[in-house]
Design brief:
With about 500 residues, this protein is an alpha/beta fold. It is built from 21 helices and 19 strands. It folds into three domains: about 180 residues, Ribosomal Protein S5, domain 2 (2-Layer Sandwich); about 220 residues, P-loop containing nucleotide triphosphate hydrolases (Rossmann fold); about 70 residues, no CATH class. Strands 12-15-18-11-19 form a five-stranded parallel sheet. It has a four-stranded mixed sheet with strand order 1-2-4-3. The protein has a four-stranded mixed sheet with strand order 5-8-9-10, with helices on both faces. A hairpin with a 5-residue loop joins strand 6 and strand 7.
Length: about 500
């Protein structure tokens, strides 16, 4: 009789039920694992054998064949160790019976202890949807798995505890936690808008960006405060919702970046990759496909400092995710889709030396150098960035005499939260959350403008040769400005303000 034990495989954020089938034949003692497993699964033979032996059980003195079904699905990692060992022990009658509605996850050490694995939260959540009632998993992963409702998660420290639980109903540790208990925490942010002198135009642009989840490009001389503004941006973003926190935690769990001591991501991510990052590092991929920076920045911020210093090919891969809010990674053997709904904040100098247009220091760049520098950002990419702003360097007079801004990040965040609530209520039937996600069809529905606004936009289109995408983005920005002002309708002054933030003034 073939023994079948349930485990799971991860493809992107999708979960597949894996049936670990174990049987023995009268032949020379050996272990054979089939079913399209990777090197970690192939190496499991010795881990399983010694884990069973060092746990005080006898390993079969015959040929053991283990099949990971379905055989056409690629399996990766060491999370199948516990399921395979459990199947062998059940085949040897050391374990009396394995229920059909229980799954097993975990990597085995040679001494029989169970080591933590990646991807536990999405796996447990997926198994629940597939009808599994219980999951036995590493004790260290129990906190992470405890956020999944309507499924029993049991933490085991070693293989011996699993055997005792299945045979004698040994009490494994259970834990249930509520996501809401980890949210709405008053975080202490390192950077606050009140600490940034001046730059009121840039601060207003970032407030609009936070309220509508719009992308921003800041241009200015070195030391003008672009990086500090970007780092303070997280302090005005609204707190994560329950669904967003779970979604982010799944991503970081699969990427292996989840701290076991902090089992839930409860703060919007701020990712700032170095300009030497590759396109694979930004979008994701690799031999074992993992999320890239744009997915790790999901529901948060991707900050590209010194944006023109990134390779052009790296910047161009952002175009599709910025438009579609997801990235599809296609390889010869697999295709994975990851979410990538992030706010892009870019910072750049106006020229290679950084002082083009500066009132205090003269630019030493030639026209050719300036043109080559700016051409690193293509027109289609710039077209996908909603807000284009200049951050001028403060004069010595301004630095010395400007008093600390009385308006804190907390004050701005309250306006942003209110604007987001308006959008959530407006779009509750459209499966979107922010103005930046509006499709052309929804723009026609929610961004209606009067005749005066139409004439203003017509003049801007003719004067600046705006594309259809730019026109739509101006309407989205105007919608966000109207929401911040508590206006149901988009007015002429909202359009005018939106145009100033597109670098068209």
């Amino acid at each position: 009789m073939v023994i079948k034990v349930i485990s799971a495989a991860v493809t992107g954020l999708d979960i597949h039920k894996i049936s670990v089938e174990v049987d023995v034949t009268n032949s020379l003692p050996q272990i054979i694992i089939v079913g399209l497993g990777d090197t970690a699964i192939s190496e499991a033979k010795e881990r399983i054998k010694l884990a069973i032996k060092n746990s005080g059980f006898e390993f079969p003195k015959t040929k053991v064949v283990i099949n990971l079904a379905p055989a056409n699905l690629k399996k990766e990692g060491a999370l199948y160790d516990l399921a395979m060992a459990t199947g062998i022990l059940a085949k040897e009658k050391i374990i009396n019976k394995i229920p059909d509605d229980i799954a097993f996850l975990g990597e085995l050490s040679l001494d029989g202890s169970i080591r933590p694995v990646n991807g536990v939260l999405p796996i447990v959540s997926g198994l629940k949807e597939l009808g599994i009632k219980k999951v036995i998993l590493p004790f260290e992963n129990l906190d992470e798995a405890s956020f999944v409702e309507e499924i029993e998660t049991l933490g085991a420290r070693n293989l011996g505890e699993v055997v005792l639980y299945l045979n004698e109903d040994y009490p494994l540790k259970k834990l249930k936690q509520k996501v809401d208990d980890f949210l709405n925490i008053d975080f202490n942010f390192e950077f606050d808008f009140k600490d940034i002198k001046g730059q009121f135009h840039a601060k207003k642009a970032l407030e609009i960006a936070a309220a509508g989840a719009h992308n921003v490009l800041m241009s200015g001389s070195p030391g003008s405060g672009k990086t500090m503004l970007a780092k303070a941006f997280c302090s005005i973003l609204p707190p994560l919702t329950k669904n967003e926190a779970i979604e982010l935690t799944k991503i970081y769990s699969i990427a292996g970046l989840l701290d076991l001591k902090t089992p839930l991501i409860n703060k919007r991510p701020f990712r700032s990759p170095h300009h030497s990052a590759s396109s694979v590092g930004i979008t994701g991929g690799g031999t074992m496909i993992k999320p890239g920076e744009i997915t790790l920045a999901h529901r948060g911020v991707l900050f590209l400092d010194e944006m023109p210093e990134f390779q052009r090919s790296v910047l161009e891969v952002l175009r599709q995710p910025l438009e579609e809010n997801f990235v599809t990674i296609s390889r010869a053997q697999n295709t994975v889709k990851y979410p990538a709904n992030f706010i892009l904040i870019g910072a750049m100098n106006p020229c290679p030396c950084g002082f083009l247009g500066d009132k205090q220091k003269k630019c030493i760049c030639s026209d050719f150098q300036i043109q080559r520098y700016k051409s690193k950002l293509s027109g289609p990419l710039l077209d996908r960035i909603d807000l284009h702003i200049t951050v001028p360097r403060l004069t010595d007079e301004e630095l010395l005499n400007i008093k600390e801004d009385k308006e804190t990040s907390f004050d701005i965040r309250q306006r942003v939260i209110k604007a987001r609530q308006i959008q959530t209520e407006r779009y509750k039937k459209d499966n979107i959350y922010t103005n930046s996600e509006l499709t052309p069809k929804l723009i026609n529905k929610y961004c209606k403008i009067d005749e005066g606004s139409k004439q203003m936009l017509k003049g801007a289109i003719n004067k600046f040769n705006l594309s259809a995408r730019s026109y739509d983005r101006i309407l989205k920005i105007s919608r966000t400005i109207a929401d911040l002002n508590g206006s149901n309708d988009i007015k002429t002054e909202h359009i005018a303000q939106a145009l100033t933030f597109r670098g068209l003034n």
